[in-house]
Structure formats: C-alpha cells, structure tokens
Design goal:
The chain has 233 residues and is an alpha/beta fold. It is 34% helix and 20% strand. The strands form 2 sheets. It has a 5-stranded parallel β-sheet, sandwiched between helices.
Length: 233
C-alpha cells in the first residue's frame, strides 16, 4: 500500500515552503492539486517534474474515491491546495475522512495557513479563538451563522471573506455582532500585504474596490479598563 500526504503550499511568498515539502513533492508518484496552473508555477520554481492532476471542489467526492484506489494499489499521492494547508477552507477534508474509513495511511505536513499570521497580526486574544473560515454564500445562511456566533461568549473570531462579499459580510457582522474592534488582513505574505484596523464600521469605510485574499478578524468586546488575557500555553 502507498500513502497519502497532505502538503501545505505558500499562501503568498513562494519561499514560504519547507525543505521537507519540496522533497516530498519531488518524490511522490503524483500530485492532486486544487489549481494545476498555480501548482505548475510552484513546481517549476523548485525544479519538480512530478505529474499533476486536478482535485478541486467540483470533483472532490468523485476524485477522492479514485485517489484512495490509487493509494491502495501502491501509489504515494501528495495533495495540495491553491495555497495554504489542504482541508482548511479548501478541498482535503473529504479525502481525509475517506482515508480514515478505508484504513489508508496518510500524514499531514505542518506549514502555511493564512489565518495564523493574521491572528497574531490582529493583536486580539489568542486563547479560545474561533476559526469560522468562509461563511455561506447566501445572505440568509451567513446571517444565520452570525446569529449563532452572537449567542456564544465573545471571543476572537476569524473569517475568510471573498472580496465580492466583504461589503455584505461587514454590514451583517456589525448589525448582528455589534460594532466591535476588528482587523482586516489582505494578501498575507504577498507584495501588497495590508492590515486595516478599527471598529467594524470604520473598516467598512475603507474597503471600496478591495481585492485579494482577505482574512477578517473580530475581537471580543471588552469592558472599559479590561485587559486582554492571552497567556501562551
């Protein structure tokens, strides 16, 4: 039997990849890539010639069965997303579940993911934070989830947001969660990385025409004079 290996790739700067990831991508039999075009660009930079095949949200369930079959027949397959760690708001979770159910060996390499540097950049408490990823594409689904979050004890909450939906997201977040302190991180580790801080309503005034990969972090509302408790474990 072969093996399944989840390999994180850079979220921006192509130098943000581990030596181990480069070695494995060059050694496996094939690479399942969310975006074969961006994957080919990364592989070319490091002189890797391993064959690629598409594994994305539209073919995830069907392709997952095929990958499991290939691994059971002795092949070692690497899985990469367009950027970051596969399975974190990208294809990969379904494949991990199928591997467990099928008794297929798999491993996850540590590596880049956008929300971790964004969380530290925010300066908000890091103990007990919540990662929500992308909310529903529909306004109804998005507002329903935000109402659920509003019912929970206030804590640092992290979202991935599409530039096409950021205005609607901010409007709903301010209405449902209140005008809390927030941070919008754009293009983490890329040339045009930017961090916008302020109340949700203040950030709303600064997003016209915004583009790129966005991480929106909302802090827990604090009482006057209260200090953040973010003791590291």
């Amino acid at each position: 039997m072969g093996k399944l290996i989840f390999v994180p790739t850079p979220v921006g700067n192509l130098e943000d990849i581990t030596l181990r990831a480069i070695r494995i991508l060059g050694e496996v039999d094939a690479i399942a890539a969310e975006d074969t075009r961006s994957a080919a660009f990364l592989l070319k930079k490091y002189g890797i010639t391993t064959p690629l095949f598409p594994y994305h949200v539209k073919n995830e369930r069907r392709r997952a069965d095929d990958i499991i079959r290939q691994v059971s027949e002795g092949k070692t397959i690497a899985v990469i997303s367009e950027s970051g760690t596969p399975g974190i708001s990208d294809p990969g979770w379904t494949l991990a579940r199928k591997a467990i159910e099928s008794g297929i060996p798999f491993e996850i390499l540590p590596g880049p993911t956008a929300f971790v540097p964004a969380l530290i950049l925010s300066g908000f408490p890091v103990n007990g934070f919540s990662f929500e990823g992308f909310l529903s594409r529909t306004g109804k689904g998005r507002r329903r989830r935000l109402r659920k979050i509003a019912e929970q004890p206030p804590r640092t909450t992290i979202f991935y947001v599409s530039p096409h939906r950021i205005a609607d997201f901010i409007k709903d977040a301010a209405e449902i969660l209140g005008d809390r302190n927030a941070v919008l991180c754009r293009e983490i580790s890329k040339v045009f990385e930017d961090v916008i801080r302020g109340r949700i309503s203040e950030i709303e005034q600064k997003i016209e025409g915004i583009k790129g990969e966005l991480v929106f972090i909302i802090g827990p509302e604090q009482k006057k004079g209260e200090e953040n408790d973010h003791e590291a474990m």
